[in-house]
């Protein structure tokens, strides 16, 4: 992040100016954990489309899911796996 001088009470201090990257990360962390059906379908489709050995897999998956970032996609996929395991355990 860049900083900018700010005068305060006769002294100068530096105030951090958020970069686009920092803003995107903040927006991702503030975004809702709720998923639409369309987002979930996009996640599952992208999971099938991008191979596990692709070094950029999660980044590409996140790009394919509207309104969600990489960490949100990973977290939601983990939740889906847990739910699936619970369903198998009940049978």
What can be said about this structure in brief?
This protein is an alpha+beta fold and 91 residues long.
Task: Name the features.
elongated; alpha+beta; 91 residues; 4 helices; two-stranded antiparallel ribbon; single chain
3D structure, described in words:
The termini are far apart. The protein contains 4 helices and 2 strands. The longest helix is centred in the last third of the chain and has 21 residues, at 70-90. Helix 2 (37-49) runs antiparallel to helix 3 and helix 3 packs across helix 4. With 91 residues, the chain is an alpha+beta fold. Helices cover 58% and strands 15% of the residues. Strand 1 (2-8) and strand 2 (11-17) form a beta hairpin. It has a two-stranded antiparallel sheet. The model has no long low-confidence stretch (mean pLDDT 80).
Distance between the termini: 52 Å
The largest beta-sheet arranges its strands as: 1-2
Query: Into which percent range does the helicity of residues fall?
Result: 55-70%
Output mean pLDDT: 80
- Kindly state the number of beta strands: 2
Oligomer: single chain
Strand percent estimate = 15-25%
Question: Structural class of the helix and strand makeup?
Answer: alpha+beta
- Characterize the overall form: elongated
Determine Rg (CA atoms, Å). 19 Å
Provide the low-confidence segments as ranges.
none
Output the number of helix runs: 4
Order of helices and strands: EEHHHH
Biggest β-sheet description: 2 strands, antiparallel
């Amino acid at each position: 992040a860049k900083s900018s001088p700010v005068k305060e009470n006769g002294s100068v201090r530096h105030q951090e100016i958020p970069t686009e990257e920092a803003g995107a990360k903040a927006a991702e962390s503030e975004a809702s954990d709720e998923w639409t059906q369309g987002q979930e379908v996009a996640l599952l489709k992208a999971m099938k489309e991008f191979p596990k050995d692709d070094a950029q897999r999660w980044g590409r998956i996140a790009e394919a899911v509207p309104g969600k970032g990489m960490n949100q996609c990973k977290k939601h996929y983990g939740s889906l796996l847990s739910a699936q395991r619970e369903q198998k355990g009940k049978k």
